[in-house]
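writing this on my phone so excuse typos. first protein, seq and then structure
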Amino acid sequence: MSEAPKRSRMRKARKYALDILYSADLIGCSVSEAMDTYETMSDHEIPAYTRELVEGVYAHEFLIDGYLAPCLAENWSVERMPVIDRCLARIAVLEMVYGEVAPAIAISEAVSLAKELSTESSHSFLSGVLSQVATIVPRTQTDEVPEKG
């Protein structure tokens, strides 16, 4: 399979994962409820990579947020981020830490989706935060939460 269709399929999976995570966060339901609702409303099965991303973010949310937190401005928290930006950041960090996606690709995909779906400044904000996370990830690659330094 050529690289372009694979990238397109992965991008769609990320977008679906964003939709599901956003819904779960906004409504306050579980990710399994959000996936069930999404599957029912879209009338098609959720792609395997989407399911992997959603379940991965849910399973590792505390650790993912541990990578994000030290990369945010002082007196800022992951919870204060706009929901869409928080979901995009979590997906990107999951891919960097637990997946086989190069940090540059994870960042690029998150930034691209932010340009399309979030605020005017979200793409540059996410680019900066995720670029900092990428400098932490290669050194740790464990379940240890990085220290702010």
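second protein below, same order as before
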Amino acid sequence: MELKDTVMISGMPGLYKIIGQRKNGLIVETLDANAKKFATAPTQKISILNEIAIFTEDGDIRLAEVLKTLKTKVEEGLIIPEKKASDNEFKAFLASVVPNYAEDRVYISDIKKLASWWTILKDTLDFDSLTKEEETEKSEEQSVEKTTAKKTTKTATKQNNASPKASTKGKGVIAVTNRKQS
């Protein structure tokens, strides 16, 4: 399973896999043993895990990168805190995975979500695809930046070569609005 196919639905516990689409929502399947399928409502907020990031002092770090680091740390012996663990244990847990996370912007509830997501994803997530997704995203970002730079250069060149034009917009036109007086 890939991270881009995994979603979180606000107000509902757990994680879900996108298995289809319908006119006004998605068809998802729970990632637990039941594998229950259902359609989402148009009013539900759905967040794709691939687009989630954690605030750091230097910017943001993608969830995919955090999960790869977490996998390495768990293999080295890091213990994931239980639901009823203290806030300090959760903070220490995240600090060991993301040492420069922004403590004032990352809430304990977010850290608890990360721990529960790890519990759900550790056996089903394809960690090799995380590396491929990151490489693809970086190459796409670079191509977008190059395209934007080219367009900016072309626009600047056209503007420098263009002759000035007089503007007649708004001259001699009186705007009339009908308002009810109370």
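The CA atoms of residues 64 and 134 lie 8 Å apart. thats all i got for now
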